[in-house]
Amino acid sequence: MERLRPVFAVGIVPAVEKYGAVAIDGGTRSGVMRLFGEVRAATQATFPLVGVAVAGKVKLPQQQASLGVEAVLEPNHTHFVIVPGKDWGEESPWIARTATTLAGAAPSVTVLVNGGQIAYSDVRQSIEAGRPVFVIAGSGRTADVLVGALAGSQADERAAALVDSGLIRSVSVDEPGALAELVAAALGGSAAT
Q: How far apart are CA 187 and CA 2, in angstroms?
């Protein structure tokens, strides 16, 4: 996770803050979602960080733990959208819809860092919304499968179909400044402005 910290501290958080954007993720206190919340708090950023989580898998504040609850909400997020469902992945369409609704007429972008099987659905939902997707090469798992598909290597059908959209670009985990420039450009500016 520490290797991924600059992706957020240099690549994502400053651009989101500079352009007054809203950031959205799965909102739980695990993996890159936890890292995103921690970096936002450490940098004293003020942009809204919205977690979209499925009701049947997260423990809400003041709620007793119950059967099936597997995660807690990340405390550095500013807002949460708790959506119906009992299984991980049921939040994917809600994440995309929340992003589309909050962006309104403003541009938006998806950044994929690492990701498991559900990330395929997250990326597909973003592509269906016409949202560009920046995939962090070298961050592992689904992100690296998509980067391989971009490079023309044999990939599973899901990765190939997503890459065929033309909306996916990759940037190295070791180049967070390049990610900042891509995010800034997608949000309507440049890193130099």
A: 26
